[in-house]
Each structure stands twice: as C-alpha cells, then as structure tokens.
C-alpha cells in the first residue's frame, strides 16, 4: 500500500516537473524573445520563401525551423506568438478566477436569495454556446487583444462559479465552521479566514486549467482572424496561414501546432498534478 502510494506520488511529481518545466522554458523564451529570435518576426524576404528546417536539404543556417511563404522566420514568429498566448492566459484567467471564485464563495456560503440569484445567472449564461458567444462578443467589441480577454472573462467565469460554489457548500458543512459560529465569529470573517483558505487549493487548480483553455480560445479566434492584426504572429494565425501551403511547406503549420499542443497539455497536466497533490487521500 505504501509502495503504491509512493509510485503514485512519484508519477504525479514527474508530471508536474515536466509540465512546469515546459511552461517555465516557454515563459523565459518569450521574455528574452528580442534577444534569442534569429529574425524580426514581421520581416519579409521573398528570396527566403519556404526554406526548410535546418536538418533538411536546402536550409539556410539562420532559419532553424524554416520560413513561411513570405520568407518570415517560423521560430521567431512562434516565440512572439507565445507572448500573446501567455499574456491572454495570465490576464484573462486571473480576472475570470477572481470574478467566478468570488461569486461562487458568496453563493455557497450565504445561500438563500444570494445563491438563488447567482445560480440562475450562471444557468442563463451557460445556455449560450461558448464559441458562438465569443465570436458575437468580438464582433460587437471589435478585434484586438482586449476584446479577446473580455470575451474569455465573460464566458468562462461560470465554470469557476459553479465548482467553487459546490466546494464552499461542502466546506460550510464542516465542524470547524460550526465551531467558529459557536464562538461568535462574524459570518464574513468565517468566510474569509476559515472557508476561503480551504477552498483556495481548488481555485488554484481551476486557474491552471483555465490558462490552457484561454490559450485554446485565443488560438481559435486568431485562426478565424478575430484576434489582433493578422501581420503580428499568433499561433492560431500561423496555423491558418500554414493550411494553404501544407504540402509545400509542412513546417509552417506543424511547429505552431506542436507548441500549442505542448502548452495546453502542460497547463492541463499541471492542473491535474496540483489537484492530486491537494487530494487529502493521496496526501
């Protein structure tokens, strides 16, 4: 039994280290992108059009992952596209977490008409198809990074609210809450000092998972040209551009896809690892 628990913890630890290592590497790469990028991501050179990666015949030494149909460096565009993806993930997920978790804790702890109003609002909000809702919001607000962040916040706060509401209700039934109430503690003080710290692990897990979702949403919107300017590199935009030349220059679409896949997978696995770490049974 002990050996089995150790094996599970070892697998969880390995999963967290691998996913966290990739995200840290990606963050540092985007931070130092102006230094390590071999080319300007917007610079076009038709004489260097569709150059293959460095390990294939016909490569050019400074185009490590090849170039696209306009002669733009794929590696440099991936690095600068990661800046957009991580920025959206950080800002949108944090704001979504704050709004959804706050409403979830209020609904789960106070109950009554507070819970009724918030729960009905969540039900109405979740009735809208999320992708269509996002496209509608972008159409109303206009394209741009700010519009994408607002769209993600408006759509995804319900996910936080529902889960945190259920967790808060579960914590509110615990003996430590009854003891605090018997001691004459104020309800708001119990919610902030007693319940919130015990709900925080769930919030952290959801926040990590939401970052992966935000990266996917940004990629989808940039794929359909509803993100920032099409000239500036985004992973979804690169994938969209690469479709037209997939048979002549497969690297234009494959490398952004791999980077997107690894990033979303890392956020997901990090969230799953944190969930298992916080699991009192496994712990």
Main beta-sheet annotation: none
Number of strands: 0
User: Helix and strand succession?
Assistant: HHHHHHHHHH
Distance between the termini: 13 Å
CATH superfamily: MetI-like
- Beta-strand content estimate: under 5%
**Class based on secondary structure composition and strand pairing:** mainly alpha
Which spans of ≥5 residues are poorly predicted at pLDDT below 50? none
Query: Helicity range of the residues?
Result: over 70%
Which of globular, elongated, flat, extended, rod-shaped describes the shape? elongated
CATH topology: MetI-like fold
Overall mean pLDDT score? 84
What would CATH call the class? Mainly Alpha
Summarize the structure.
This protein has 283 residues and is an all-alpha fold. It has helices spanning 2-31, 33-36, 74-110, 112-126, 130-141, 145-172, 175-182, 187-223, 235-243, 251-278. It has a single domain (2-36, 52-278), classed as MetI-like fold.
């Amino acid at each position: 039994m002990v050996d089995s628990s150790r094996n599970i913890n070892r697998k969880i630890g390995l999963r967290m280290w691998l996913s966290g290592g990739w995200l840290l590497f990606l963050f540092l790469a985007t931070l130092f992108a102006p230094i390590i990028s071999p080319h300007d991501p917007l610079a076009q050179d038709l004489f260097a059009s569709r150059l293959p990666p460095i390990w294939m015949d016909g490569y050019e030494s400074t185009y490590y992952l090849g170039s696209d149909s306009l002669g733009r460096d794929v590696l440099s565009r991936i690095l600068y596209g990661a800046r957009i993806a991580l920025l959206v993930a950080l800002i949108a997920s944090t704001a979504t977490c704050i709004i959804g978790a706050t409403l979830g804790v209020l609904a789960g702890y106070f109950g009554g008409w507070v819970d009724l109003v918030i729960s009905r609002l969540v039900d109405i909000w979740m009735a809208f198809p999320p992708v269509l809702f996002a496209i509608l919001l972008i159409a109303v607000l206009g394209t741009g990074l700010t519009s994408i962040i607002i769209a993600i916040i408006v759509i995804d706060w319900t996910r936080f609210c529902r889960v945190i509401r259920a967790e808060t209700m579960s914590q509110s039934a615990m003996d430590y809450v009854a003891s605090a109430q018997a001691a004459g503690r104020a309800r708001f003080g119990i919610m902030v000092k007693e319940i919130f710290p015990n709900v925080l692990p769930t919030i952290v897990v959801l926040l990590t998972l939401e970052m992966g979702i935000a990266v996917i949403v940004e990629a989808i919107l940039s794929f359909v040209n509803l993100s920032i300017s099409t000239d500036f590199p985004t992973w979804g935009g690169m994938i969209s551009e690469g479709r037209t030349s997939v048979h002549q220059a497969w690297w234009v679409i494959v490398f952004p896809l791999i980077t997107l896949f690894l990033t979303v997978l890392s956020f997901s696995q990090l969230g799953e690892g944190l969930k298992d770490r916080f699991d009192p049974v496994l712990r």
